[in-house]
User: Fold this.
Amino acid sequence: MAGPVHYEVYVRKTAPSPWTLQMASEDRGHAIDTAEDLLRDGYAAAVRVTKETLDPDTMEFNSITVLTRGVPEVKQKRVVADDQAGPRCGTPQDLYAPVARDQIGRVLEDWLNRQGVTAFELLHRPDLAEKLDASGVELQHAIQKVAVPESQAVGQPVHDLVRHYQRLADTAIERLVSAGRKNRFPSLENQSIADMAHRLEGQPERAFIMGGVVAGALKGLRGSRVRIDRLMDIADRAPMDGHPRAMVLVPIEQILCEMLGARTNLADVLGPSLDQGGSLAAVVRMVAPREVSMLVRQDPRMALQIPAVEGPAARLGARLETAEFPLLAAALARMVLRELMSPRRLRPNDAAGEIDILRALATTLTATAGRLLTLEEVQTAFNERSKALVTADFVASYVKTCTTILCEAEALTRLCENVTGVANKRSAARWLSACVGSLRFETEMRNQSSAMTAAQKLGVLASLQRSIRACGLSDRDEADICAAIGKVGGSVEADARIVALLARSPAPLPQKLSALLRLAAGETAPLGAAADRAKAEAIKLFRAPDNRAALAAAPDALVPLKGLMRAAGLAA
Assistant:
């Protein structure tokens, strides 16, 4: 009988690069989809998916390639540096390094999730070490996941690395179990964490022991909210300053980094009702509460997009605000950037809402630039996210609810305003240009049975034109789109003969000039044919001898017209 099966995804960043393990999963479809996404998004030059089947008799894995895509592999002689010739972890202490813990968290992800613990806790709790050792297959499976890609990277035989890591795991488990039997990890039930930290100061294995104490305090607790509450309780009772305080806060921060690095745990802490965009906004509010509070005071509408954090998340946010956990704050901020650069939708069923939450995230992350992230990192993330906003699928979903072509043009104008990056602006401009330049747009705007009057249509087109000029498009795109709107506006005005009617109306001369100048200035009509006709008619009125005499006799009537004359390009 075949044993357990899993699928491994390998990538090559460039053609001559070696294959490196990207992820492992027990779901074949998930592994193949991930590989194709990595190749399509340009994160790898080539991808490969292998099926790994454990032989229960020999406890070895049989590998079968399921998928290979991308640039062909360049065969070349492997040259391994002397400092990389041996295994990357040589002693049990090496397993406690952040990189090693991260690797342990990946290869034992399923087992750790079932236990509801982190890799840090596994390395500091004897009961978990004994449970993992008793599982047998789980540990062997994890060692295989580490040894195979490392063998391909450094050129050592797989079996040598498997034997090395098996001995290393046995030694680390024996060390941890022995420490537990000797009661080196005292309980916090009968003594203070502050007193314990002061007693451990100066001892050679103080970090290992304090890590075991903090990890042991979480024993029996399930659920991220309860566990964070317990960690905050321990932080509240930590020494006030100095090395003893750092001795307590460091393991707490390491556990929190690993705990909140898992998407499922983050949803548990922030609440399952939040979508992806809401979760990211809540994380930003948790790591930068001061900046978010200032933005909400300036614009109360921001509070509708950025959910409030409560309970354990609020307690943690208060400590992040005082810079007690800088590594955690930086890790969460970078997690937000990674999610922004991923292909996942922020609000899958609400395209307009996705733009709203993206704008809120852009504002808040820009406000934190310099403290948690650099401005360049924030801009790069939003440029990458903007690529997803100008795809055909997103645009179709975005304008699906629009009932008129004018509504669609206004929605696409908002899209142009909110995307970033030169290429993305150009793509959004093409969608808008196709909309306002279509026959449907002209037909609907010239439809005389419409609910809007011709004057109202001209005003709407003028407002649309002003919005486009504020979108930051290239000069060429802006000129083309505004010209198309101006052409439609000219047709609407010609059909209704608004300028001619104004010129012949019995209204007082200053009132007629004011209406014509507002049309010519682009306030009540789009710049183009309609504005040009209004400007020409205004010039005629100014040049008429009777009108000149009337205006000369009442110079006060010219005062409110001077600003409009300058806007229309006439000498005041």
Q: What stands out?
A: The chain is about 65% helix and 5% strand. The first helix runs from residue 28 to 40. Residues 466 and 526 are 8 Å apart (CA to CA). The mean pLDDT is 87.
